[in-house]
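Show me any protein, keeping tokens residue-aligned.
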Amino acid sequence: MQPQKRKLAYHVATTLDGFIAREDDSFDCFANEGDHVTEYLATLRTYGAVVMGRRTYDIGLKFNVTDPYPYLETYVVSRTLKESPNPRVRLISDDVVGAVRALKAQEGKDIYLAGGGALATQLLTAGLVDEVLIKLNPVLLGAGIPLVSRLGSHIRLELLSTKVYRTGVVLLQYAIKH
């Protein structure tokens, strides 16, 4: 019996108009209190690894957080970081698609794609993302960092579940239809 392939889940908060952060990378516009936050933090414990882009990683670095997910194998995609600020945090500097494909082939828990939008676009285009979990926030920004951008072709999704929270946040879980 072959081991189950690890899934890669793009699990991200977004505004109603499709932005994961403001243009300056800030995300103070998202609801940060309520049941959805507690559930999100619990869900993070179900993953075995996290992959994020450099700009996402930099958010923690501004506060001297070099290992934002100490309970997960952590990978940061960066062409500019020459060495990791933390021995637990591994850098992926080239062949991102190959590196993520190799991670998915390993045994273990699923992989959390923490962002950002450009990295998600690259991995979606390569067919490596298996699920998209959207925490849709009741806010419109009008501009910012998009959830995805310039996909080579459309990607069909299958709705797996929805949950509405008292804060107005809606959690949408989709499977990618490969």
About this structure: The beta strands are 8-15, 19-21, 49-53, 73-77, 89-92, 111-115, 131-137, 145-146, 157-164, 170-176.
